[in-house]
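Entry 12.
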Amino acid sequence: MRPPNFPATRSAFLLIAVSLGALPACVSYKAGPLSAEGSASSFSDRSLSDAGLRKFLAGQRAGSGSWGVERLALAAAYFHGDVRVARAEAEQAAAGIKTAGQLPNPVLSFSPGYNSTTTGISPWIISPSLDVTIETAGKRGKRLASARAAAEAAQLRVVAAAWDARTKVRAAMLDLHSARENIALLKTEVALHEEAVKKLDAQVKAGESPVFELIQERLGLNRSKLAMHDVENLAVTARAKLAAAVGVSSAAIDAVTLDFSAFASLPAAPGAGVRRRALTHRADLLAALADYAAADAELRLEVAKQYPDIHLNPGYTLDQTENKWALGLTIELPILNQNRGPIAQAVARRKTVGVKFEAKQQAVFGEIEIALAAYRAARAKAGTAATLAKEAASAADTTKRMVEAGDVSPLELTRRRIEASAANLANTAANAEAQTAAGALEAAIHARLR
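Predicted 3D structure (tokens):
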């Protein structure tokens, strides 16, 4: 029995060796352990002086400055779970571009045979072969177009998630700011009620006022104290909400000085141009458009799949010391189906995505209209409340002059000051309502009001 013709089979063994030699270039697995304890510890250690956050803020040109709405919103874009999830999904979608662009690997087949009836020569039959796929109709380009559109949609959803985080940060800061302002006003009101009770008590003892007035004043004092307790609870809750909106602990918020200057005034209502831009440039709407582009690319790919790929099958056989070469060609015959089922599904999917976009745009239009109407009404109410507060302050000043002239008792001045304090509380509440409406409008148009 003679050995196989090794020189003749050198190319076949070389091909196999090259294929096996490529295995060390494979990507190795990297462990990524995750534990509840470690994650909880990492969260509790977060602070607004975090090195990664500082680098992120510097990249956003907000490396320094006060911790106002915008800077805390950027911190939320870095820390908040919803934004981090959206960012991770964007990275996952971006990785899909690499998958879509990959060329199909050739397939090596090696099936040695043995001829048991052969005598005098080698009984071994060596027959390696390759299957090389040649994609037709631009399928790879259409896969890439779909993957790129999906990656763009995912990236735009990161922007939309950051806007949602900003909305939550602004709302929590407004609640905290309003609560702190109300606490200061209510402390003044409680002190005024206590002063009125003291004066009324003296008048009742002197027989100058009925007991009923003293009882009513004490009721007013207790109502103010209860209101202050409620507002103090709101302040504590708002502080916790702000920490949650940023994605840090309450201790991290306590470690910095907050800037509430964003709520110092009410901006003007936006014009029609801003509203129209929102309907065409809001991040979530652009993401829905990118979804449509991806669905359209998928349809193009399914249409292209009507045209079969070509498979080249070069092969070699060493049979009884005889060298035999072959070049096979494999093509799927589209006689039982022309990929019409997947094409119909892709058409329906594209239509569904298009209808979803139109529905989303319609919902955004309604959201903007409602938010704009609410802001205009709240702004008008805030104007009336400001006028009321000025008039109440003016009345208190007039009463003070009357007291100094001896025309009315000091108790009347205290009562006017209580009325002025109540007007200030109403003004603060109206301004908070208007600022809340402004925040809803900013969330609707995905833009700051100027």
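Annotation: Confidence is low (pLDDT under 50) at residues 1-9. The chain has one domain: 47-119+139-445.
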